[in-house]
Amino acid sequence: MMQTNxxxxxxxxxxxxxxNEPLHVGRPNLGDSRRLFERIEGILERxxxxxxGPVVREFEQKICQITDVKHCISMCNATVALExxxxxxxxxxxxxxxxxxxxxxAHALQWQEITPVFADIDPNSYHIDPGCLDRLITPRxxxxxxxxxxxxxxxxxxxxxxxxRYELKVMYDAAHAFGCSHENRMIGGFGECEILSFxxxxxxxxxxxxxxxxxxxxxxxxxxLMRNFGFAGYDRVIYLGTNGxxxxxxxxxxxxxxxxxxxxxxxxxxxxxxxQKHLAGIPGISxxxxxxxxxxxxxxxxxxxxxxxxxxxxDELVEVLHAENVLARKYFWPGCHRMQPYKALFPNAYxxxxxxxxxxxxxxxxxxxxxxxxxxIEAVCAIINTAVGQAHKVRRILGNKRTGSQx
Length: 407
Description:
Blueprint: E1 23-24, H1 33-46, H2 54-67, E2 71-75, H3 78-88, E3 94-98, H4 103-110, E4 115-119, H5 133-136, E5 141-147, H6 156-166, E6 169-173, E7 181-182, E8 185-186, E9 193-197, E10 210-214, H7 217-226, H8 248-259, H9 261-279, E11 285-287, E12 301-305, H10 307-310, H11 314-323, E13 326-327, E14 329-330, H12 342-345, H13 354-360, E15 363-366, H14 374-389, H15 391-403
Parallel strand pairs: 1-13, 3-4, 3-5, 5-6, 6-9
Antiparallel strand pairs: 2-10, 7-8, 9-10, 11-12, 12-15, 14-15
Helix pairs in contact: 1-8, 2-8, 3-4, 9-14
């Protein structure tokens, strides 16, 4: 590992930041720009920019082929996809979701006046804990939304067994999980449906976009109506709907990203292994593992900080990294239950979410992808190694900065 043993070599100790430009988590990974421009030229020549054009249909077909799912209904973004799926499944009353997820998962319910009931996570998997589901189910419960956090699948078998017992519907937020598999099945075909995100920061990006994947023919027909105002042909509206369509140009970006998918996985995996090598042996720093028996996209570099061993908290380490222009992210801090409107609606929710509280205070995500080199990764790990090695001094400097002390 690159040697950065002295505290005065860190930006918080007075040195120049290690990176001149911010090193972001989630910089977009781009495909072959020449192929993208060719597709865009074709779109402009056809003058077919939206409304279920040929590029959108090709993109949907390729997603179906990769995931081995019958129907892919593309959307303008994953949040709208969540909202439409929830409405198409006729969920109401209460729906159980993990609090340890992106806020859109909960908002998609609350937006439709459905109460999100927050479940705790398993502290080892970071996924919804099936063991807590029975006590959360009430006569008002109509469904469960599982989340495949960081592309690692949640316990679908246990969730769906419980749902079957109570006659509940199950869907999955698979925003992180395109290209991943679970028990030799590609993610996309579990539950009633699964939601993908093609946001610019995701493994597969269409600049902005999402999709609903399902093997349910009736549900797919309903979703297609709902994403286009309920139109079934010209001037014939047969269902309540909204505008959730993906544009042709977004689909062109998605197709271009698909063509580089295998190379991107290899790059992500190489970056993951580089972090694994350089973070090994640093006290209190552990990198989440990816089960290699199934397919993974390795899109997230997730580090858990155990402050009792590192002698620094996650927040202190993030502060050190930010000073170096390494914009590490807290994930998913502080949990949906501590954000509005849920904090006001359920002020005591944290009492039932001890593992969510614990892990949301420990986890950070580090930069990876096309914009990060092996030299960058080595430097990021050296910063972490130095900070942990000089933890007591680092903590004192950070404390002095907060209080304005010059000592």
